[in-house]
Amino acid sequence: MQKTYAEIYRAWKDDHHAHWREAARAIDWFTEPTEIFNSTQGVYGRWFPDARGNTCHNCVDRHVAAGRGDVAALIYDSPVTGRKARFSYAELLERVNAMAAVLVDQGVEQGDRVILYMPMIPEAIFAMLACARIGAIHSVVFGGFAASELAARIDDSAAKLVVTASCGIEPNRVVAYKPLLDAAIDLARHKPDYCLVLQRPELAATLQDDRDIDLGAALDAARGRTVACAPLAATDPLYILYTSGTTGQPKGVIRDNGGHMVALAWTMRALYGVKPGEVYWAASDIGWVVGHSYIVYAPLLNGSTTVLYEGKPIGTPDAGAFWRVVEEYKVSVLFTAPTAFRAIRKEDPEGALVKHYDLSSLRALFLAGERADPDTLRWAEAVLGVPVIDHWWQTETGWAIVGNPLGLDALPVKHGSPTVPMPGYDLHVLDDAGHEVPAGTLGNIAIKLPLPPGCLPSFWNADERFRVACLSEFPGYYKTADAGYIDDDGYVFIMSRTDDIINVAGHRLSTGAMEEVCAGHPDVAECAVIGVADGIKGQAPAGFLVLKSNVSRESSLVEAEVVGLVREKIGPVAAFKMAICVKRLPKTRSGKILRGTMQKIADREDWKMPATIDDPAILEEIAEILAARRIG
Fold it and tell me: Which of 267, 438, 492, 534 is the most exposed place for a label (fewest CB within 10 A)?
């Protein structure tokens, strides 16, 4: 008889090791773990320290060996190029072996770092798995990332080799990657030995004879070769994923092999409720942690079919793009960011395009990456008619801290809450002095150490930086840097980043709570609230509103109504007097709104263009609007 979430979470709290020992049985180990956790190793301890295995073996080889080679492993769908492809597990194994052979031929060995500067194409996944196969440590950097940012990652990782493509395809333009890579290598102190360049039909790159290798030709020559899976320690790094650091130096989040496999395999069954052979689609990018965990590794560990989508939620060709993919490939579970649904809703407020597609295969929608406001959740529930499940996690954790376990016993939904902590996470809400606060009180969300399997053990070559940034403020805890509260039922509410808690005349207020009210206005598609410096109150909130495409009313009327709503729902204490309609909000490529940068512009502080921004022109528009309104 299957256990409930409450039973599993209680059992985990009673015996952490027993829970993860059982979960580890889903992995095909070369050397089985006998020690589940060692508290004396690493910064806060290491999981499965005596086990050996290989992530690529578990993602690909074992499914072929089990007679499932004909099952679809990867579906590639590219509306920006018109190309589609399917790869069975047997075909995926052949392609990964060829990629691994090419890497080995260029001298890549276990422990070497390989940067993947790639668009959303199958070869990017082949390269990730090939690195995992031979024990090289991959570091995916968004294709098209600025040369200076790419150079910083080349230097920090001391990458031996770069795998890239000639270009990336955006809905309205072709982005040449090779000139950016060349500029990055010129800037970098460390010089990679070789660059493997995949020539795409849309744009050919000029190759340098002494350094650049035609990846397509090399793969063709390597077809049919076999490269053995390296027997790696569970604690050996699988990848480094860089996030922007507050000092300007990128933070390299490390993911290990063993704990990562155990945690992700468990989530596919217990959290997402996906079976082997079912189609699972994480509509994200492999440059983000969601793409690592749930486009590549978790679905393949589970023996499912994963979708790699080179397109957008709107504009490729319209706001029905997601529904076409769900229908065509019979997607069972869709996972994307709330901002994707806000974009769809803005273009198709009534959800009319949903009716043009057969979505009967879809069992659930999962949202993460940014706070899912209740209004967007309700809209998605109404138009899709399936459970819409918010869950909360971070690049550092690699999988959900808080979620609603669809694969166990889905719990009642509370709009605005990603539901309850997953086994492995002991959550506490602390005040700034580190004291626990009562239920329902806003505070700092912290996780009692140790972090569970799959979470980062440290930053790349920066243990002390990890301690200072994440572990020192609240001794014995990992600081999430998110603010929120836990209610009397144990439901967690994540309201904002701690940096987004504003102080208005001595009152600590959540911008997330104000955004929730703004988003509830029927004409508002999405919004952002920031704190602006105020000579009397310290800070005052300012709301930025993007209206739905079908709204024809004067924006000033909507602005006044939103101000009234916030004063009604939150009260005069919020001092919310400023609502501004804008055409677009500045976002990262994953859809996160750049509130911190907006605040610096409003306060006339020094700021620089974020490396991950989707469209730099939007920030310039915001700056002009703020100047025109004489804000700041």
Answer: 438
Does position 245 have pLDDT exceeding 60, yes or no?
no
Answer yes or no: CATH 3.40.50.12780 is held by domain 5-311+391-483: yes
Peptide bond into 450 cis (omega under 30): yes
Given this model, what pLDDT does residue 485 score? 95
Q: In terms of residues, how long is the chain?
A: 632
Residue with tokens 């060692």: 38
- Average pLDDT of the segment spanning 562-575: 83
In angstroms, how far apart are the furthest CA atoms of the chain?
A: 72
Phi, psi of 576 (to 5 degrees): -85, 105
User: What is the pTM for the complete model shown?
Assistant: 0.86
The region that residue 595 occupies, defined by phi over 0 for left and psi between -120 and 50 for alpha, beta otherwise, is: alpha
pLDDT digits (tens, 9 = 90+) for 362-381: 999 999 987 788 888 999 99
Cα separation of 155 and 18, whole Å? Answer: 41
In one-letter notation, the amino acid at residue 66 is: A
* Residue 520 three-state SS: coil
Report the amino acid identity of residue 352: A
DSSP for 553-576, please give it.
S-HHHHHHHHHHHHHHHT-GGG--
Name the nearest CA neighbour of 283 among 360, 366, 392, 213. 366
CATH class for the domain made up of 505-628 = alpha beta
Long-range CB pairs of 30-34, under 8 A, 24+ apart, other chains included:
30/54, 30/231, 31/231, 33/234, 33/258
Query: For residue range 147-194, what is the model confidence (pLDDT) as tens digits?
Result: 888 999 999 999 999 999 999 998 888 999 999 999 999 999 999 999
Q: Which of 295, 287, 308, 226 has its CA nearest to residue 264?
A: 295
Domain regions of the chain by residue span: 5-311+391-483, 505-628
Quick: pLDDT tens for 8-37.
999 999 999 999 999 999 999 999 999 999
Of 194, 61, 43, the C-alpha closest to 133 is 61
DSSP secondary structure, 265-295, as one string:
HHHHHHTS---TTSEEEE-S-TTSHHIIIII
CA geometry: angle at 469 spanning 465 and 471, to 5°?
Answer: 105
